[in-house]
Design a protein that fits this description.
Elements: E1 16-19, H1 22-25, H2 28-36, E2 40-43, H3 50-55, H4 66-71, H5 86-90, E3 92-94, E4 99-103, E5 110-114, E6 119-121, H6 133-151, H7 168-182, H8 201-210
Helix pairs in contact: 6-7
Length: 211
Amino acid sequence: MEVSYNPQIPVETFDFIITDECHRSIYHLWRQVLEYFDAFIIGLTATPSKQTLGFFNQNLVMEYSHERAVADGVNVGYEVYRLQTEITTKGGKVEAIFYIDKRDKLTRKTRWEQLDEELAYSPQQLDRNIVAPDQIRTVIKTFKEKLFTEIFPGRKEVPKTLIFAKDDSHAEDIVHIIREEFGRGNEFCKKITYKTTGEKPEDLIASFRNS
C-alpha cells in the first residue's frame, strides 16, 4: 500500500505528531504516514535502536535510563542468568531426506513433508519460521532444575514469572511445554496475547498481578 496525497487530509493538518512505539512505526506503511505530514514528530519508545535514532536525525530530546528509574523507585534492579543452547547461538540444520512438519502459524495445522535438500537455519530464524520444540524444552527443564538452587536459592515456591514469546505460535509452544514439564495444571501457566480464548487479556493480567 502506498500513501498518496489526499486533499481532504492536507499535509499541513497537524502542527506536531506523537507516535508511540516509534521503533516500530518508522517502517513500512506507517513511515509513509509520518513522512506525509509537514509536522514536527515526537517519538516515544522503551527500546530505541540505531535505526530509530537515525530516523529522528539523532535528535534525542529526553532519555530516562534504567539506572535512574531504579533510583526513582519506578523499576527494580535485575541480575542476568543466561541459558544458551547450541542452536540459539549458532543455528542448526536438518539433513535432506528427513521429514519435517510444516505449520500454518495462524491455524497451527501441520503437514509432514520430506526435505529434498538440507535445511540450514540461523539463530534469528528460530521460533519465527523454524520451530525446535526440544530447544524450548531444554531451556524450560534447565530453568526448573536450577530454580531453587542457583536462580532463587532458598525459595520453595515458583515465583511469578513472565516469559516473552516471539509471536502467538511461539507462546503456544512455550505454554504447552511448561505445563508438561511442571505438571501443575493449566492454571499454573497461561498465554496472554491478542489471541487468548475464553478470557480477556486484561483479566489475565489482573489475575497474574493479584492472584
